[in-house]
Design goal:
Chain A contains six helices and no strands. Chain A is an all-alpha fold. In chain A, α2 packs antiparallel against α3, α2 packs antiparallel against α6 and α3 runs antiparallel to α5. Chain B is built from seven helices and 15 strands. In chain B, strands 2-1-3-4-5 form a five-stranded parallel beta sheet. A five-stranded antiparallel beta sheet of chain B has the order 10-9-8-12-11. By secondary structure, chain B is α/β, with parallel strands linked by helices. In chain B, α2 runs parallel beside α3. Chain B has two domains: 127 residues, Rossmann fold (3-Layer(aba) Sandwich), CATH 3.40.50; 98 residues, LytTr DNA-binding domain (OB fold (Dihydrolipoamide Acetyltransferase, E2P), Beta Barrel). The chains are: A mainly alpha, B alpha/beta.
Chain lengths: 124, 239
Amino acid sequence: MPRLKSYTAPDYEYIDLSYIEALSNGDLAFEKEIVEIFIDQILEDLNLLNTNFNEGNFNQLKQSAHYMLPSISILGLENRLKTELEALDALDAPYKILKKHVHTITTVCNKARKEAISLVHTLS
Amino acid sequence: MNQVNYTLMNCLIVDDHRIARTTLKKLISLDNSLILAGECSTAEEAYNKIIHDPIDLLFLDIEMPGMTGMELVKSLGKSSPMIIFTTSDRDYAADAFDLNVIDFMIKPVSPVRFLQSMERLREFVKTRTSKTMIRDKDYIFIRDSNTIRRLALDQVLFLEAQGDYVKIYVRDHTYLIHSTLKSVVDKLPDSVFIRVHRSFIVNVSKIDTLEGSTLVLDKNFVPVSDAYRASLNKRMQIL
């Protein structure tokens, strides 16, 4: 029998738990599992994104941005990063703009990851 | 959330993202007719599982390293389980539906959207089952002038498309029905009838001879087109 929610999640600036909560139906173990996967995965995704950008592999950059979508969307970051993700998908912006977008994605995801770590402590 | 209950089905998750597989597992648990037979992170892994295990339904991602979800469906051909695509990219929708999939869900999939998809699946299974029941019969009903007539399938030699009509040939008689060959063939058992030409379907057990590109069935000549030749040869099991 899953442990059911008996607390109010604190408000977060970056992560949005609406989707996870709708899906978990109060199953805290499930929420924790998803958030832990996000914490691990987003780090790998960001490393890949930045490596591809720094090495000038723009096709790979586009793929790595696309690859981040499931993690980003499950934690409710998709709307916040919509402009940046679309620009990396289209790859028609100047280098300076792309660099700014990669930086924004990295910053937002890192801040979301910090919040996710704090959330996991709450759920533990 | 309410759980639904219908025919039990073995399902397989195919997605390279662990986070997506985990959310799908949770969604699958909402429907007690689904039995999770496993999860695969690549299409190649899924292909091997599908050819060895009885899998009824795939929750299939499209963009994966190596073989894509679309390529997996194409490589499985007619032996493909039922497919529900799950993807982050709605640009694939048109291509996906060309593959006769049950549904196309954009990730992240909400519980409501998932249950809608299960409803669509249930409708599909229901229709397919009733079609199979029809096809297992050894007769069909046809409209012959003002009479609805029962026609034993073992009396039928072959069928020919003629514009908006289909002509059904039995030994000493023909019937002309207002229909398309496609809709008639859907009601006939695959095990007995085979298409040999764009305009002809024959009863395999009534074939007397095959000479070159012509079949003879009770003194009637039926052309065989190249496109259907291989499947006909296979069905005839020529010694």
